[in-house]
TrEMBL record:
Occurrences of domain PDZ (ranges): 43-110
Protein name (Swiss-Prot/TrEMBL): TAX1BP3
GO molecular function: protein kinase binding
UniProt xrefs under PANTHER family: DISCS LARGE, PDZ DOMAIN-CONTAINING PROTEIN
Annotated InterPro entries: PDZ, PDZ_sf, Synaptic_Scaffolding_LAP-MAGUK
GO cellular component, one term: adherens junction
UniProt-listed Pfam families: PDZ (PF00595)
Biological processes, Gene Ontology terms: cell-cell adhesion; establishment or maintenance of epithelial cell apical/basal polarity; neurotransmitter receptor transport postsynaptic membrane to endosome; neurotransmitter receptor transport, endosome to postsynaptic membrane; receptor clustering
Amino acid sequence: MQHMPGDPLHIYGIPITLHKTTQLDKFGNPLVDSSGNHVMRCGFRIGGGIDQNPAHCPYGYPDKGIYITSVDEGGAAELAGLQPHDKLLQVNGVDFTMVTHDKACKLIKNDPILQMVVYRKDAPPSLHQQPPTYLYDGYVLPGGAGNSHTFQPLPAAPNTSFMSPDKY
């Protein structure tokens, strides 16, 4: 059956909890930032955002969502179960379907533990355990089909890169 615009899509999310790890220097000592806090890493990179142009994406992502573009081998992301090309739907209760790239980066950096809901294309249904989120015309409406939220996407910013050069 073909999807008709305006009809809801049922998207099931995969819950993932990521505990950031402390970044170490070449001697095994914890790195410290200018505030005296340990530098924490997630072990992944992201791409996308509502201010990015998916046409610039080398991976062919179909929309302006936030995607995991790479996962460090043996890092916190890999240990938590994240995979390259997972789409971040939610992080620590924040809807990631309508965020700019910069806002996604800031939200990811905020907390030492990330409670995430991701979408993984072609994942078996048994892996997707969260209740469905309803998607209308490309916009996620958390909480079910009864919502009447209207989202206005931002235009793509000129001269922007799809992927962040930073690792998290």
